TrEMBL record:
Its EC number is 4.1.1.36, 6.3.2.5. This is Coenzyme A biosynthesis bifunctional protein CoaBC. The lineage of its organism: Bacteria, Pseudomonadati, Pseudomonadota, Alphaproteobacteria, Rhodobacterales. It comes from Roseobacter fucihabitans. The gene is coaBC. Residues 189-397 are annotated as: Phosphopantothenate--cysteine ligase. Residues 1-188 are annotated as: Phosphopantothenoylcysteine decarboxylase.
Amino acid sequence: MLTGKHILLIIGGGIAAFKSLDLIRRLRERGALVTPVLSKAGEAFVTPLSVSALAGTKVYGDLFDLTDEAEMGHIRLSRVADLVVVAPATADLMAKMAGGLANDLASTLLLATDTPVLIAPAMNVRMWDHPATQRNLATLRNDGVDVVGPNSGDMACGEFGPGRMADPLEIVAAIAARLTTGPLVGKRILVTSGPTHEPIDPVRYIANRSSGAQGTAIAQALASLGAEVIFVTGPADVAPPEGVEVIRVQTAQEMLGAVEDALPVDAGVFAAAVADWRVADASDRKLKKSKDVMPRLEFAENPDILRQVAQAAENRPRLVIGFAAETHDVIENATAKRLRKGCDWIVANDVSTGSGVMGGTENTVIVIDDKGCENWPKMSKTEVAKRLADRISQALA
Ligand code: CTP
């Protein structure tokens, strides 16, 4: 989600500084690089050693450290980052920022930077409510500084009200939102992907050859255009994409439940190869071999997830995209399928033996909508995904 993003984290001097340790951990879990700056007042609440251990790097603290100046000037320190985060942002730090003071490393970095800044204020409720702090807050907002929190609640000083620093995960979400750009920012898109497994008994199941590669590539392409992606996947061969909410399911019925929970969305891309049938009475005990009797499986029809969403009276996404895996008469079958299911577009492909699509890395698709058919040349599944994501972003614009 934040892979390769560089965060300069300034830790101010407040009791909430201990939460910054968790913030560092959460950011690194998501692939971010964190350069911590611990203010002198911050050192009263957390130690440089604990900050450095969690960040996996040196902690900056002294403006006049000549070694640091030689190796990386404080101005450069603030500019290599993708985002400067101040957590906790104390009343004092906010006042310094608003007034343009630069008398220690933290305030100097904040004055010298041309990188976007996000602050997570934390202070006593009276200090927060004070006209001076509110004036500084308005100045900072006006200067383009983003603000997350503070939240209301019991405070360490025994009072109640706004002033608690936002939780680390809220700060992470605000950081991700600030760093995400692209034409799909603000759009929520559901993608189903992979096969489903329909149990016969506790050890056996019915499945299909879908690897999940195409659905995964689509989810990745949508996320890289800034969409909030909910990725509902059956047991796929490929790893789920970065930066999306992953919901893992086994069966078609579980997939339907996860899809319904994800609504409403702006668009739905139904790339999963959902099993059309399940075993009506899956056994909860392993079926045993017997010389004379072959097991007989009774089937029941699975819900058609795409059709249910496309034809729903409530919460129908603005754009519903189905896939059609066909082995013959691709255009005829897919055109009929689009109308039967009620979706806006169908991405049709030939999955006959020898096409190499199922489990392969390339795909040749035909996109069918109400205006007709678009034949795309053979290309990698990643390329198909990028082109489809672009087409989706134009449709939702
Ligand atoms: N689909 C679905 N739920 C199902 C079956 C299919 O959501 N129970 C979706 C797939 O994700 C795909 C589209 O419907 O987007 C078409 O899938 P496909 O297997 O090609 O179509 P079927 O409805 O199974 O039709 P048929 O097997 O007759 O070709």
